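lol ok so funny story. i was supposed to be doing the assay writeup but got distracted and ended up predicting the structure for this chain instead. priorities right. anyway since i did it might as well share w the group, maybe its usefull for someone
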Amino acid sequence: MGFFAIAADMIVTVHFFYLLFTVGGALAIIAGAATKWEWIRNARFRVLHLFAVVLVAVEALLGIWCPLTIWEIRLRQRAGQQVDSDISFVARLFRAVLFYDLPDWFFLTLYVGFALFVVGMLFVVPPVWRSRK
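and the output, tada:
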């Protein structure tokens, strides 16, 4: 496996963990509110999570492909790979979780709805803003 194939696998791995952070972060906030976990109120975590989710929604609203997807595809092309067939097992597994053949309107609705949900969670489970002393 050459450099470009390994780089493409690294990109799809980052993409997978980005998805885990956005979805898992929301689930952690919900679970944390129910179980009174203090760390889910950390303002840095909440701002970073909000930014990650809103970025995806804005990309969808503007009709922009995710840069991670574009980079992965270009790297696979440079490696001489077919994106859906000539890839490693782990990359194929991560892509199966990340990509679905559904209409664009479905993803737009999903991403914007999820972003609005995360914004709403800021009010339901507000972060704690600590001032510097």
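The longest helix spans residues 3-35. Helices lie at 3-35, 43-62, 67-78, 89-98, 104-124.
back to the writeup now i swear
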